[in-house]
Design brief:
Blueprint (H helix, E strand, L loop, with lengths): L10 E4 L4 H12 L3 E6 L23 E4 L5 H11 L4 E4 L5 H5 L3 H7 L4 E6 L14 H7 L21 H25 L3 E6 H8 L1 H10 L17 E5 L5 E5 L3 H10 L15 H12 L4 H8 L6 E3 L3 H4 L3 H5 L3 E4 L7 E4 L23 H7 L4 H9 L5
Helix pairs in contact: 1-6, 6-7
Length: 389
């Protein structure tokens, strides 16, 4: 059996089906929290998006409660669950949980120590608080897209990962929840958390934004070292058409790279704007002479900050990630076993038994409500009325 997780004993009610909040509960669960996914009964399936079976690690290790929150009896059932929980996470539009009678004030009346986390695109107040959006919108609003590379038509490149939903939203929420739990341990008081994904993007962009606020310099592609101003921080094509990432920021790493590419004449010109095009051309010509993996084998261990631009099929078989047990095999009742990303964050236990994903149609509603005082007759009535499933 695995050792108890760092959040062992913490109970989380997650009202979200997708997006930043779903990532938040996934990561809290990875640290050992007991997560209960709260969704609508089948007759209300259109209310929420149902993610594919593999999304969010298949909700491995979680429980599911299906409750009609629009029904008074469903609201009361949720509040009974919330009375014994530590954290509530929701991602409805601002104001919706209050109209349903399950907002922070309502939950706090039955559980003063609750950590109540609302996640939304633009926050719970402000001129755009009611606007809808997705990852790309928040990256655009927060300045991320304006600083990314450009395609042939001059358009900002679409990101290859949901940076806003994950880092700006889900991780922000995890950090805030953990801080609130630490504060509660000292004071006994709960906290309300207003997680805005767009605010989180601005936090991720703070190096560029703070530069502009302090100096007036407008950041953008090729403006700074980290957005491609210098040849030492860029991507280059190899002889086989694959790509290499170069991030030789420190002068001694840049010098090592120049020597390895027979470009010694550029060692003292790393940040000389007048010759960056020439350096890039020489680097590009050098990298084009050999296949990507040959370059990685030669340069990776040579203190040059060079790595392969790996595809997903490549990285899931990569010897380094396999050695670190980054991937695990998950079991499911209604299909074959499959590999998935494991428990990755520092402090999470990577030596756990084979995880089992939360199979479609499986619910724990009756057992969970029985634990908070509902008798069998009441549960049968609620199920018959479609309030729970």
């Amino acid at each position: 059996m695995p050792a108890p997780g760092l959040l062992d004993g913490v109970t989380v009610l997650d009202l979200a089906s997708v997006g930043p909040a779903a990532r938040t509960s996934r990561w809290l669960s990875d640290y050992g929290a007991r997560v209960i996914k709260v969704g609508p009964p089948p007759r209300r399936d259109g209310v929420q998006i149902t993610p594919p079976f593999f999304a969010y690690a298949g909700h491995r290790g979680m429980q599911r409660a299906l409750v009609d929150l629009k029904a008074p009896a469903g609201r009361d059932a949720f509040l009974r669950l919330a009375a014994t929980a530590d954290v509530v996470i929701e991602s409805f539009r601002p104001g919706v949980v209050d109209r349903l009678g399950i907002g922070d004030d309502a939950v706090r009346r039955v559980n003063p120590g609750i950590v109540y986390c609302s996640t939304s695109g633009y926050g719970q107040h402000g001129p755009r608080s009611a606007w809808v959006g997705h990852d790309l919108n928040y990256l655009a609003a927060g300045g991320y897209l304006a600083c990314t590379g450009r395609g042939p038509d001059g358009a900002p490149a679409l990101p290859g990962a949901t940076v806003a939903d994950s880092a700006a939203g889900g991780m922000q929420a995890v950090i805030a929840i953990l801080a609130a739990l630490v504060a509660r341990a000292a004071t006994g008081q709960g906290t309300y958390l207003d997680v805005s994904v767009a605010d989180g993007v601005i936090s991720l962009m703070s190096l560029n934004i703070d530069e502009y606020l302090a100096t007036g310099e407008v950041p953008g592609p090729r403006h700074s070292l980290l957005t491609g101003r210098y040849a030492c921080y860029d991507v280059y094509a190899a002889a086989d058409g694959e790509w290499l990432a170069v991030a030789a920021i420190e002068p001694h790493f840049f010098a090592n790279l120049c020597r390895a590419l027979s470009c010694d004449r550029w060692i003292t010109h790393q940040t000389d704007d007048a010759v960056q095009d020439a350096i890039r051309a020489d680097f590009a010509a050098a990298f084009a002479a050999r296949p990507r993996d040959e370059w990685v084998a030669a340069l990776g261990p040579a203190d040059t900050c060079v790595s392969a631009v790996a595809s997903v099929p490549e990285l899931v078989h990569d010897e380094h990630f396999r050695a670190r047990r980054v991937f695990v095999t998950a079991a499911r009742a209604d299909g074959p076993d499959f590999d998935q990303v494991g428990w990755l964050f520092a402090g999470a236990d990577r030596d756990q038994p084979t995880p089992r994903v939360l199979d479609a149609g499986v619910t724990h509603t009756a057992a969970l409500l029985r634990d908070v005082g509902f008798d069998d007759a009441t549960l049968t009535e609620l199920e018959h009325e479609g309030v729970i499933a």
